[in-house]
Structure formats: structure tokens, C-alpha cells
Amino acid sequence: MDEDLRKKEYVQVTAVFTRDGNLIPQEIKLEDGRRFEIDRVVDVRRAPSLKAGGMGIRYTCRIAGRPCYLFYEENQMWFVEMKTA
User: Fold this and answer.
1) Contact 71, 49 (CB under 8 A)
2) Which of 47, 62, 61 is nearest to 70 (CA)?
3) What does DSSP assign to residue 32?
4) Rounded Cα distance, 23 and 47, in Å
5) CA 39, CA 48: separation in Å to the nearest integer?
6) How confident is the model at residue 1 (pLDDT cuts 50, 70, 90)?
7) For residue 4, what pLDDT band results from cuts at 50, 70 and 90?
8) Which is deepest, 14, 18, 48, 51, by most CB within 10 Å?
9) Residue 35 CA from chain centroid, whole number
10) 75 with 51: CB under 8 angstroms?
11) What are the pLDDT digits (tens) for 12-54?
12) What is residue 58's predicted lDDT score, i.e. its pLDDT?
């Protein structure tokens, strides 16, 4: 049995557009109201979510020093991979 089961959780994201047109996420707000400031965006690429399903622009972020994948789907919605219970 896969011990690292994940689900797709849609989140609210505060982001900015840079002068050269790049979209940079700044903060994630989860469904339960918790907020997480993004320390740094390490990588941006088109990629699938292999654990939760879906496809989009994958932002590899650092939040409190830990890596996190944040996805931006073509329908302009953001999601993260959350562990299931």
C-alpha cells in the first residue's frame, strides 16, 4: 500500500506579475485558513502532479525552509499536493 497518498487541494494564492511578465506566488492560504509565506521560488516548469493528478505550471517553492510544489492550472486555479489521512 502506498504510504504517501496525496490529494489535490485548491488554495488561494497571493501572487505578483514582474515587469517582464512572470507570475510569482508570494503566499498560500489553505482551505482551513492557514497561511504560508513563500520564502523563495526555486524552479518553474510545466509538469504533472504525479501524486495528486493534474497538470499545470509547477512552482517548486520553499516555505519555512522546506520544499513544496504549487501548481497553477490552465483554468487559472492553484493547488497543492496534501497528504491524505
Assistant:
1) yes
2) 61
3) T
4) 16
5) 23
6) very low
7) low
8) 51
9) 13
10) no
11) 999 999 999 999 999 999 999 999 999 999 999 999 888 888 8
12) 96
